[in-house]
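Q: Structure for this?
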Amino acid sequence: MNAPSKAQFTIERQREVVAALRKLLPEGCVLFNEEDTRPYECDGLAAYRQLPMVVVLPQTEAQVVDILKTCRDLKVPIVPRGAGTGLSGGAMPIADGVVLSTARFNRILKMDPYSRTAVVQPGVRNQSISDAAAPHALYYAPDPSSQIACTIGGNVAENSGGVHCLKYGLTVHNVLRVRMVTIDGDIVELGSEALDAPGLDLLAVFIGSEGMLGVVTEVTVKLVPKPQLARVIMASFNDVVKGGDAVADVIAAGIIPAGLEMMDKTSSRMVEPFVKAGYDIDAEAILLCESDGMPEEVEEEIARMSEVLKSSGATAIAVSQNEAERLKFWSGRKNAFPAAGRISPDYYCMDGTIPRKHLALVLTSITEMEQKHGLRCANVFHAGDGNLHPLILFDANKEGEFERAEAFGADILELCVQVGGTITGEHGVGIEKINSMCVQFSAKEIEAFIAVKRAFDTAFLLNPDKAIPTLNRCAENGKMRVTGGQMKFAHLPRF
Amino acid sequence: MEHAMEQVLQQFRDRIALASAGNMALRIQGGGTKDWYGQEPQGDLIDTRPYAGIIAYEPTELVITARCGTPLVEIEAALNEKNQMLAFEPPYFGPQSTIGGVVASGLSGPRRQAVGAVRDFVLGVTLMDGKSDVLKFGGQVMKNVAGYDVSRMLAGSLGTLGLILDVSLKVLPKPFHETTLRFEMEQKEAIEKLNQWGGLPLPISASAWHGGVLIVRLSGAQAAVNAAVQKLGGEQETQAEIFWNELRNHGNEFFAAADGPMALWRLSVPSVTAPLALEGEQLIEWGGAQRWLRTSADAATIRSLVQQAGGHATLFRGGDRRNGVFQPLAPAVAAIHRNLKNAFDPSGIFNPGRMYKDF
């Protein structure tokens, strides 16, 4: 397991910290009894658990300032937490630390259709921004699959994407401004309500920093006009490589689809009995290819994409005829994770990104790894942007299966790095992939990341032990990046 | 080629090590087309142009990777062949412009309002830091959240954190169709219209208001552009391509006059900001969010008015540059800047003072 240091707290230490925090917060905002702190022991990566010493639920920015200053003085590490839907253990508590929940920062402060922006507190759910914007025919574009539950603060921490980010971008492209508190208790604004801000683009480095640089208290997001119409094409292929090539052909034809997703046969067979989306379960790969915009535009794009897919060897093509059918086509893809949970007691979702041209090699290698590790794997793929989600199926109650799943996952990530990709496209490093960071980055690069953290978090107390490994950790795990001819897959071109 | 590039890298390493040992400033320069931007460059010249060439271009992956000294014209020609583009339309202030300079300056052109700025398209950067170490941040893929996103921060960093060695940028297909419309309209109405239109699903890719005329470009599928023309009205602009090129490269009459005695300011404000009561002439871009001002008004007046509006002002060209060209930073933000500078450039050798005096 990758669990961090398990330094347990003493009752005296807990009393000291609780007493200090209680002076700052109203009744009921400081939790320390086990039955109250238990719900915070893990996030969406439930295999990793740690009971926190204290949980705080501040309601105002001034309270956040006080909490951070106090924790700095007492040298208590802090783990910020939104809805706890993260899939990489970024919000997993630290044994002798404080979990700072943004649950009570749940108000939309301003919804301004004229400037197409909303100012929201970090605990506001992603979906509720779009719901509040809907009367103005606007919405917030990034749509991670957890959007009904996940919060914008968490999205900022993880730079969340979604199925539409090829066309509409990630969180970093859709957030204008973040207001946050540093460990020193300074209130800092990054970005602005204009399109840029003076100085270095600190907003860009803050987004995706996994709660390690500051605690967010306010976010200004961009809203975009809701497309009048969306239609999706479902195309079948008798070969995954052909499916991958078809994606390249669509892009080469000058089209950026609103969504471009691929599922392998294992995945479609996994979801079809569950959701009855009408998937062709004999196809080796299914592509979902969406167009959105003005009706005239959608019609033109659907015709153009259908042509391309046919000439790329699609064995069958269906185009959604109405909104209900569009949602049905998508339901299979969107339910891939629950479906995995239905056919297997446990599953482990990976998140590597690869240059798409290496898809065939990566999928073939994953098939070989299934043999090696004795576990099955279903693949769903944000094909447009190369983000692969292999779902490793296992049973945690069977001796050694979790460890095998972890090893399988680490092998996949190593392969992603070797072909020129990355260990995480959108789920973050958290605690889960921290050893794989040593595969992707050199010691000097990891030192640079640590220096960036120190530039913001001078006391090194915000979510330490996450996302950026210490060099000792890399050395202990024997994962330090090797160079040149020693690499696996050395024959592959890379740059 | 590879060997030659290795030699250039070694020269960079040696220069940086030497400068670092002697605390001597290095002035990083590509084509030198933007030397006038920011505070005056200081130090010994380190010319990035020998480190040039497109390393990889994968049209179907929508990614191009090039060394810092690669001329922008070379990159755009390669993209053009595959009917793709740098969608943020970086301005040319001269034909020698390099991709390193494009990223370091962080300047974007007319299409920025629709697609995003340089930083939105940066996927990865290789940087040589103040210790001559070569560091890779980001990568060649669209989605990547491993490690902090240092590469996007380098866009607009004016070479203050290190020498950008190569950069990977997301590219986009060119639109199938473009049309430009022209409307007679006063400034206030133009700002209102641009913001109203911004809330509608219209394929507006660029806009410019100046002297009572609003010009709007529509880009996308033929059907979408046609439908938008129906909806918006206005007259078709016949000299569209020249107009947008001149605007992008600051080649039109408004910017040409900026070489005169008056200063040219770039005001970055929320798009909905009402007309700013500042003396001089304005040209408005990016749906109202970027306002160019040719004026002799004093810096304090401009900065305070723009700051009140929620924006910031840059003394872009000319004017009295002694008191700094960029809007001063809040103390806590300035402290983070200094910490980052110390992290990447501990001896303070890279483009000192180019962005801020103590930075």
